[in-house]
Model the fold of this input.
Amino acid sequence: MKTINIGIIGGGLMGREMASAFARWCALEDVSVQPVLTAVADLNPAALAWFERIPSCTQRTADYHALLANPAIDVVYVAVPHNLHESIYCDVLAAGKDLFAEKPFGLDLASARRILAAVEKSGRYVRCSSEMPFFPGAQRAFALAKAREFGRVLEVVSGFHHSSDLDPTKVANWKRKSATCGEIGVLGDLGMHACHLPLRLGWKPKRLFAQLQHGYSTRPDGKGGTTECDTWDNALVHGWSDIAGQEVPVRLEMKRLAPGATNTWFVEILGTDGGVRFSTAEPKTLWLFERGKEQWWKRTELGFGTPFKTVTGGIFEPGFPDVIQQMWAAFLMEREGQLGDRFGCATPEEAVASHEIFAAALASQTGQTVEHVG
Ligand SMILES: NC(=O)c1ccc[n+]([C@@H]2O[C@H](COP(=O)([O-])OP(=O)(O)OC[C@H]3O[C@@H](n4cnc5c(N)ncnc54)[C@H](O)[C@@H]3O)[C@@H](O)[C@H]2O)c1
Done:
């Protein structure tokens, strides 16, 4: 199998998650490439030390420029605070490496557009991380919507809820401050996830009204004191999209203060003749609406029908680590020109389109206005 050498910049929560997806790559049955984690860069010595458990990861450095200078590395995945995305993404491209970027694709719309220009100039292969559409239920919802199985679409809701900000005693990190998380706050944090399927279906809102909410204004700083927190924590974006010649409400929901939700991504598409609901709260379950003489919501247990086949039995439940691995399989197979008709990762253009939505949402909140998008 062809090996692809990967470097990770930012060995925190997501850097480790990606490393573990490579480590169990043998679970995949129908891929022609094998990622090999070769290098990691992180400023934190404890983060670097974690990677000692991965024998192939022989370069562990505090200086990401040293990783970029390593000629063996083919692809670089970057998972650092949002204020560093643009500069590090552009450095990766300038070093002649392919890039798997984390969301958001830059701190704001202007930043996203500059990154896109650098991508186009470099000619490198670049995609943006967004793994939730790789759940089997999300794939089925996408396929049905693409095939226009629902009659006239009446309403679309796509969202991501978690509740990690509900606890006021939780110590503030870079995600709670606009300087490092971005003025768009939760939109940048969770927005690519909510926008991915609607954008792939061509359902980008053309105008919108947004309601943004702050969370706690101060939090413990982890050193015995408190620190200011100024990011938007919840966002409801009420958009209008053109779907098959009709104006349709498309609501995007992104919440870090959603009571009861740990990490719930969901999509719901309702039409005159049918509909679909999928939520990661029920990871193997698909709800399908049918209308006949009577009306039904049918519950199907999809099991482990992932886009790339695996050794895992078909009756088992998919989870977060599985869809992370599926996303990497899609990234690497598309890079080889072997994606076929499978679902591909979010493109730089889709990432910029998501920023157009976030910028309009911010303007809408500020002016209490309906804003045109893009
Ligand atoms: N796709 C997803 O589901 C998902 C989930 C969580 C986070 N994310 C994204 O992943 C990225 C990282 O988030 P996280 O939760 O892993 O954060 P984190 O704080 O756990 O990790 C970030 C790491 O970057 C390191 N770092 C900071 N500056 C650096 C530099 N100059 N050079 C090298 N390393 C540096 C930090 O030391 C830290 O270890 C963000 O873009 C975030 O939005 C994606």
Observations:
- Residues 141 and 276 are 6 Å apart (CA to CA).
- The chain has a mean pLDDT of 97.
- The first helix runs from residue 13 to 23.
